[in-house]
């Protein structure tokens, strides 16, 4: 449901009615099928979902606002559910060819059927199509803590691969990471510690993040208690490979990362190169 904030022609349009909303922990999964059929994410129908499902619904809204039609349609609710699970939203019919590539990319990244590859709400606010036309304040993102938790538990080889991948990111792709790193208030030498993360959570955590017990996640970052992390390592730690795989540029990213390992031109990575 939507309402205008006033009767003025330039009035803002706001989504309302959050009666089915709930606070969830970063690692919590929900299983009830709720919501309007046209806006339900695929993983909701599979009865295992989290906050990524909300981003999908925003994608449906954005699609409708831009082209005037629904991305998934059928005459019955069961037909709509099948379309959500099986069909791809169309971007070939008018007016999509006349819309900007940034607008199309924004909606496509919101409507990725794989929740791991779908961008988060904070990433959506960092997208060029949004930030180039609006003065948006990007919030601290729960996603970076999930990714950092996985990174801290990874092998040295995986960490090295993530470092190589992070060095292939474009300026637009780095924007979100720079914003998140800045929110952690690094020291003058440009590094962060567990203390920085603690302070940032107390200062910037939303009510939803507090209700979801995000601070419980800090125990998984305990190794930062004895060392610091610079921006280069942060990019590797907070990088989502699943999201990179969803980009048209994925092969280019992967090839460039491979070449950072491969030094002699023989296309064979040796142990010494990985160690360096």
UniProtKB/TrEMBL annotation:
<comment type="similarity">
    <text>Belongs to the protein kinase superfamily. CAMK Ser/Thr protein kinase family. CaMK subfamily.</text>
</comment>
<keyword id="KW-0067">ATP-binding</keyword>
<dbReference type="Pfam" id="PF00069">
    <property type="entry name" value="Pkinase"/>
</dbReference>
<dbReference type="InterPro" id="IPR000719">
    <property type="entry name" value="Prot_kinase_dom"/>
</dbReference>
<dbReference type="GO" id="GO:0005524">
    <property type="term" value="F:ATP binding"/>
</dbReference>
<dbReference type="InterPro" id="IPR011992">
    <property type="entry name" value="EF-hand-dom_pair"/>
</dbReference>
<protein>
    <submittedName>
        <fullName>CDPK-related kinase 5-like</fullName>
    </submittedName>
</protein>
<keyword id="KW-0597">Phosphoprotein</keyword>
<keyword id="KW-0418">Kinase</keyword>
<dbReference type="InterPro" id="IPR050205">
    <property type="entry name" value="CDPK_Ser/Thr_kinases"/>
</dbReference>
<dbReference type="InterPro" id="IPR011009">
    <property type="entry name" value="Kinase-like_dom_sf"/>
</dbReference>
<feature type="domain" description="Protein kinase">
    <location>
        <begin position="1"/>
        <end position="130"/>
    </location>
</feature>
<keyword id="KW-0547">Nucleotide-binding</keyword>
<dbReference type="GO" id="GO:0004674">
    <property type="term" value="F:protein serine/threonine kinase activity"/>
</dbReference>
<keyword id="KW-0808">Transferase</keyword>
<keyword id="KW-0723">Serine/threonine-protein kinase</keyword>
């Amino acid at each position: 449901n939507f309402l205008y904030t006033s009767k003025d022609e330039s009035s803002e349009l706001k989504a309302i009615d959050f009666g089915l909303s709930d606070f969830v922990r970063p690692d919590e999964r929900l299983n009830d099928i709720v919501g309007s059929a046209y806006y339900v994410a695929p993983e909701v129908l599979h009865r295992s979902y989290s906050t990524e499902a909300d981003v999908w619904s925003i994608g449906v809204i954005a699609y409708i606002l831009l082209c005037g039609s629904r991305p998934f349609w059928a005459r019955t609710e069961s037909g709509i559910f099948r379309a959500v699970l099986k069909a791809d939203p169309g971007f070939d019919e008018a007016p999509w060819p006349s819309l900007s590539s940034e607008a199309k990319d924004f909606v496509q990244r919101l409507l990725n059927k794989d929740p791991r590859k779908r961008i988060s709400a904070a990433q959506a606010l960092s997208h060029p199509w949004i930030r180039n036309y609006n003065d948006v304040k990007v919030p601290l993102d729960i996603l970076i803590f999930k990714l950092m938790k996985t990174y801290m538990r990874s092998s040295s080889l995986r960490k090295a691969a993530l470092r190589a991948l992070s060095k292939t990111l474009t300026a637009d792709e780095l924007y979100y990471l720079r914003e998140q790193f800045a929110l952690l208030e690094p020291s003058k030498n440009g590094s962060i510690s567990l203390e920085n993360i603690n302070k940032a959570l107390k200062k910037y955590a939303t009510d939803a993040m507090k209700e979801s017990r995000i601070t419980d996640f800090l125990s998984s970052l305990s190794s930062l208690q004895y060392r610091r992390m610079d921006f280069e390592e942060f990019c590797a730690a907070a990088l989502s490979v699943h999201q990179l795989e969803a980009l048209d540029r994925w092969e280019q990213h992967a090839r460039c990362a491979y070449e950072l390992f491969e030094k002699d031109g023989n296309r064979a990575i040796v142990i010494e190169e990985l160690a360096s």
